[in-house]
Amino acid sequence: EVQLVESGGGLVQPGGSLRLSCAASGFTFSSYDMHWVRQATGKGLEWVSAIGTAGDTYYPGSVKGRFTISRENAKNSLYLQMNSLRAGDTAVYYCARGGPLSWFDPWGQGTLVTVSS
Amino acid sequence: EIVMTQSPATLSVSPGERATLSCRASQSVSSNLAWYQQKPGQAPRLLIYGASTRATGIPARFSGSGSGTEFTLTISSLQSEDFAVYYCQQYNNWPPLLTFGGGTKVEIK
């Protein structure tokens, strides 16, 4: 069974940093693009970052320069380093496996990040 | 950036009835469109990719259609477990950007 399990969320002050992790199992992790998608409470979905099988990375303008996605294939793990956090970054962060053309399937259960003083 | 617009924001439907959800792209995305279902407290689940291909395990009552800028998700006969929020997502200009619509909530009438 394909499974993605996020961890590392919590409460952080504005301007602070946090590192999220996603543990993957049930598939050949190194063969898939991987993504982070977030959702503020009561709001829609926002794609946050992606990393390809060759380590190429992509970000939308809202997080570029502040967030860094990485992967460790030997540990079947995905990471998201988040720096200079703002209140607007408060959300549930999901990791998701990329489909061949970058749809998302499946998704993890999510981890909550709260940025507040 | 391609903007995805979903309508209506909320759809009230009786169990057993048909539900038709719309997704419009600000420019052509060809057939590079996916649909997701999200129930309260749960992660989204892939329903449709390639505008019309059902994902593994998705019931046949879910169907997708459209291409270019206009897309439709149809649920032929709503079951109790189908009341949820539905999102569309384009992946035509990948890389570097992926964008979602704002969602349609399907509620019990």
Structure description:
The complex is a heterodimer of chains A (117) and B (109). Chain A is mainly β and 117 residues long. Chain A is 0% helix and 51% strand. Chain A contains no helices and eleven strands. In chain A, the strands form two sheets. In chain A, strands 2, 4, 5, 6, 9, 10 and 11 form a seven-stranded mixed β-sheet that branches. Chain A is globular, with a radius of gyration of 13 Å. Chain B has strands spanning 4-7, 10-13, 19-25, 33-38, 45-49, 53-54, 62-67, 70-75, 85-90, 99-100, 104-108. In chain B, strand 5 (45-49) and strand 6 (53-54) form a beta hairpin. Chain B starts with a strand and ends with a strand. The A-B interface holds A 35, 44-47, 50, 56, 58-60, 94, 99, 101-110 and B 32, 34, 36, 42-46, 49-50, 55, 87, 89, 91, 94-103.
Kindly report how far apart the N and C termini of chain B lie: 36 Å
| Integer-rounded radius of gyration of chain A | 13 Å
Number of strands of chain A: 11
Number of helices of chain A: 0
**Structural class based on helices, strands and sheet pairing of chain B:** mainly beta
Which consecutive residue ranges of chain A, at least 5 long each, have pLDDT under 50?
A: none
The best one-word shape of chain A is globular
Spans of chain B with pLDDT under 50 lasting ≥5 residues?
Answer: none
Which descriptors would you attach to this protein?
heterodimer, A: 117 residues, mainly beta, seven-stranded mixed β-sheet, B: 109 residues, four-stranded antiparallel β-sheet, globular
